[in-house]
Amino acid sequence: THLAEVADWSGPGRTSDGHRVDILANVQDGAGARAARSTAADGVGLFRTELSFLDRDVEPTVDEQASIYAEVLTAFEGTKVVVRTLDAGSDKPLRFANHADEANPALGVRGIRIAEGNRGILHRQLDAIAAAAASTDSSPWVMAPMIATSAEAQAFAADVRERGLTPGVMIEVPAAALLADRILDHVDFLSIGTNDLAQYTMAADRMSADLAALTDPWQPAVLTLVAHAAKAGAAVNKPVGVCGEAAADPLLACVLVGFGVTSLSAASAAVAGVGAKLGTVTLEQCMAAAEAVLSTSSPAEAREVAAGLLG
Ligand code: PEP
Ligand code: MG
Q: Considering only Cβ atoms within 10 Å of each terminal Cβ, which end of the chain, N or C, has fewer?
């Protein structure tokens, strides 16, 4: 049964024929990271740093940020950890970073866009991540949310490399998925955020229960963009992960692997289920399912086709 598989899974992530895929955890602070460590997760694929600061009026100092980041790095010592810079705005506004009066916050100054008018806030956070890395002797990867253009990726990567860290970007705006090949000229990895990618592709608020059918990560249009970005990464041999909710669905996770995605990052509660399911299918099966879903016209059809090929 599904439950028995979950109980049995002990990592590392791989298909039944041995194709390695890192199964990672999404975390938001040290306590969450320590809890995630008790799963068999291969590391952290998304550390949502902004969630530590939702109640703050004033930007936390570099030292305070560094100690919060170090807690997560310590919990996952010796494994891969991907730290995301502040994704402030929209559903996660920060009083010290965002404008209070935007008409359309999801389309406003959110994520990396804050750095356009306030580079210092990004630089101080990167200094804090670098300090946390040094104090814990670890080498986190660092990625920016809400990248829409190649120029944004280039500027971010320069700031990250200057501090000896490894830069990547999230692919969660359709423009970035479409031009993933050009963005990859500047960064070392991509991480696809399917929650926002679905929201912006389908023009449907991810928070709206009424629109949940539109923001379903099985939407063929969303999967087509994911496949496109994964292919761009494979072409230049750079890692492409998925860290949105899509990676928490065991069946969809196998489809993502078939697209060429190299890591899957999900809420800790979903890690074992994804790892267990992946261990029951071959890479060839994943690739067949990936190809098949791209010819479907609805989430229901995509699910059905994938279930037929992946068991
Ligand atoms: C996403 O958009 O899919 C994502 C992982 O980021 P968040 O959910 O934090 O916006
Ligand atoms: Mg997002």
A: N
- DSSP sequence for 95-158: TTTS-S--S-GGGSS-TTHHHHH-HHHHHHHHHHHHHHHHHHT---EEEESS--SHHHHHHHHH
- Ligand 1 center from residue 196 Cα (angstroms): 6
CA–CA separation, 122 and 93 (whole Å): 16
How does pLDDT run across 251-299, given as a tens digit for each residue? 999 999 999 999 999 999 999 999 999 999 999 999 999 999 999 999 9
> Which residues form the pocket of ligand 1, taking CB atoms under 6 Å from any ligand atom?
46, 48, 87, 172, 193-196, 243-244
The predicted complex's ipTM stands at 0.99
Distance of CA 78 from the midpoint of ligand 1 (Å): 25
Per-residue pLDDT tens digits for 20-34: 999 999 999 999 999
Token representation of residue 70: 């170090």
- Tell me the whole-structure pTM to 2 decimals: 0.96
Tell me the three state secondary structure of residue 40. Answer: coil
Which value, in Å, is the radius of gyration of the alpha carbons in the chain? 18
Q: Please give all residues whose CB falls under 5 A of ion ligand 2, grouped by chain where several chains appear.
A: 172, 193, 196
* The two structure tokens encoding residue 216: 């379903």
Instruction: Please tell me the distance between residue 195's alpha carbon and the centre of ligand 1 in angstroms.
Output: 5
Nearest to 244 by CA among 229, 264, 262: 264
Instruction: Tell me the torsion sign for CA atoms 182, 129, 267, 283.
Output: positive
The residue whose C-alpha atom lies closest to atom 8 belonging to ligand 1 is: 195
Burial of 120 (0-12, 13-18, 19+ CB in 10 A): exposed
Dist CA 53 CA 178 (whole Å): 32
**Token pair listed for 252:** 């969809």
Which atom of ligand 1 lies at the shortest distance from residue 46's CA? Answer: 5
CB contact set of 180 (below 8 Å; sequence gap of 6+): 171, 190, 228, 229, 232, 233
